[in-house]
Amino acid sequence: MAEAWLYDGETAVRHAVEVEEAPCRLRIRFADGDTLDLGLDQLIHVESRSGHEVYGRPDMQGWRLGIPEGAVAQLAAVLPRRQRYGRLIDKVGLWPAVAACLAVSALVIFAGGKMPEWLAPHVPASWEKSYGDALVGDLGGKYCNGPGGQAALNKLALKLSPGAKDLKVRVVDIDLVNAAALPGGTIVVFEELLAEADSPDEVAGVLGHELAHVERRHVTQAMIRDLGLGLIVSAFGGNTGGSINGLLAAGYSRGSEREADRDAIAKLRAAGIDPLPTAGFFKKLADQEARLGGVAESLSYVSTHPMSGERQKAFTDSRQPGRRYQPALSRDEWEALFNICAFDPARKKAKSFNPFN
Amino acid sequence: MNEMRDMRAAHTPASAFTFTGTWREFLPIALTNLLLTVVTLGIYRFWAKARERRYLWSRTHFIDDHLEWTGTGKEMFIGFLVVMLVLLPLFLAFQFGLQALVMRGEVAAAGALTLILYGGFFYLIGVGQFRALRYRLSRTWWHGIRGGSFQPGWSYGFKFLWKMFLGYVPASLLLPWSMVSLWNDRFNEMSFGPHQIEARADTDGLFGRWLLIYLAVIVGVIGALVLGFGIGASTGSTGAGITAAILAGLGLYVIVGVASLAFYAAYYRKVVGATSFGGLGFEFTARTADWFKLILGNIALVVLTLGFGMMFVGYRNWAFFVRFMEATGEIDLDHLTQSATSATSDAEGLADAFDIGAI
């Protein structure tokens, strides 16, 4: 017999009761003489507070019985204590659970990092193309089409990727010193890049880099990473919106950039184009990267990263001494490409350059 | 022994609210929470929150008995997943649409879309705030009785949207009105047991403190300039001037922070003091200096422990909240019957997604 208190979950009145143990059940005696017999399987342990063990009934919300600690030994022995860390962790124990979680987390991080690489080759090109078309369209009709320019650009692209099918390389009338591979495989060269280039060899290096991004499906990888990682990592912090936003600004991985550089160097070598001008051009690009405006930011995964000294060096070192390099394009072809926007009959831009001045 | 049917809130000389937790008792909970949260890449934080609250509530004494928290990590996790399931596709669609529009040069349309996006987020922040409060009340038990709300919070979201907008438009001058009015809107929809909570706060005396923040900004900026130029001119060295200006800038940060605290302390005393339910009135007695000590203590705790003290911030905030909470009046336990509100389990997913608190 022990004194206890009871809330019935219907009113807030605190009933003073006495509890009495019987085999497999508990008898609760109210002050007015009423009794209530409960099977031990009808009770759950809720918590310990201020010297009382508090029990509840799964079928009656708010029903609480408080018994002084140790007063009913049988109850404490039979009824499992309520969850501590969580049902699953309580079952296996804290330390085994920590070890298991650690292993799973390591696996998740590893697989999460590799996932884009694994998945990218399996994304149908048509999906990516529809996505790219929906996202970019025709860039608001900013594609340039001056006489002979497109032919020269195609020739240069084919020189770098011989035998490639479905090459789509366009020049757009946007004032950025950059080039980008878009989802769907289209490569766009921004007009200012041509204006800043001193020779077609410089354009060839940049184009080779972007061609490699397309051929290796780095764009697809970046898209998958943007979508997938955001989902996983949003569990990290409370501010989910913010972390998604930050992740969308990710982009190609460092590994992808290095791979694209290696490919570009190989392409230049195979095509017999001097890599030195590209090295110089990358430096120029890096200096101007800071100027990139809102367009580049909103299309996060197509902007290139600032060039490091290491990358410049790779291009410089790839030059084969004694080899006779050919210009990437003839004089006429370069002139046509250079003025592809200026001489576009559809554009009213009265700006034309002589690239050889 | 007879049953106690009438509880006087102010029957003891001490406050009706007392906090009996100790940091020694809480430390094992905090440490294991931190450990499990890290090794589960953050997923455990819902269970961690539930454990923390279960402890804090069970050590919070109101009149004659402790509170009980019955929320679970599982339901909070599910609430989070549901919100993510709805929000994420929306967010990605907007992001995609925005990029597509910018790439096509449709700047006006992109601007409109951004406006809709922010409006929508603001609306959801309001809804999240309401639902977080409703959830907390529905999981808080005292004497076997819980709270809740009959409202889902969708209409509160609209009130939040336009009242905050109105508060911000005139150089944020009307924000105290927005905050007080929204507090009333929010709490008047809440109940505990059968009793509707009543909030009748007004803004008397709050605008003075609000203007104090503006004054602090002006004084701080002028002070920084004068100090910067003064020292720069008197010593003839730009370096000293710049250093002085930077120090003055830091001072500005502190002054504005204190002014904001002064406002918030007054605001909180005001709104809590105007809130009541079922014959009980509440009071919050913390003054600016108390808030200042709390914030300073939290900062010191986090900085001095290289961030590990973070796990005690929730504990300190709750202890602070309980310590300065008072209640007066009488509550009739016979008539404090069970809440008829539905104990929806959408938890705090929305509030969590936007990183906001309930009170």
Give, in spatial order, the strands making up the sheet with the most strands of chain B.
Answer: 1-12-11-10-9-8-7-6-5
Structural class of chain B: alpha+beta
Strand content of chain B is 5-15%
Mean pLDDT of chain A: 79
Which shape of chain A, going by the Cα principal axes?
A: rod-shaped
Share of residues in helices of chain A = 40-55%
Structural class of chain A, by secondary structure, is alpha+beta
Q: What is the chain-wise order of helices and strands of chain A? A: EEEEEEEHHHHHEEEHHHHHHHHH
The poorly predicted ranges of chain B are: none
Quaternary state, please?
Answer: heterodimer
Trace the largest sheet of chain A across and list its strands: 4-3-2-1-7-6-5
Stretches of chain A where pLDDT falls below 50 for ≥5 residues?
Answer: 234-249, 293-304, 349-357
Return Rg of chain B in Å: 24 Å
Tally of individual helices of chain A: 14
Distance between the termini of chain B: 39 Å
Write the H/E string of chain B, N to C: EEHHEEEHHEEHHEEHHEEHHEH
Tell me the major beta sheet of chain B. Answer: 9 strands, antiparallel
Portion of residues within helices of chain B: 55-70%
Describe, in plain words, how this protein is organized in 3D.
The complex is a heterodimer of chains A (357) and B (359). With 357 residues, chain A is of the alpha+beta class. Helices cover 46% and strands 16% of the residues of chain A. Chain A has a seven-stranded antiparallel sheet with strand order 4-3-2-1-7-6-5. A three-stranded mixed sheet of chain A has the order 8-10-9. In chain A, helix 3 runs antiparallel to helix 8, helix 5 crosses helix 14 and helix 8 packs antiparallel against helix 9. The N and C termini of chain A lie far apart (107 Å). Chain B is built from eleven helices and twelve strands. In chain B, the strands form two sheets. Chain B has a nine-stranded antiparallel sheet with strand order 1-12-11-10-9-8-7-6-5. The model of chain B has no long low-confidence stretch (mean pLDDT 86). At the A-B interface, strand 1, strand 5, strand 7, helix 3 and helix 4 of A face helix 1, helix 2, strand 4 and helix 3 of B.
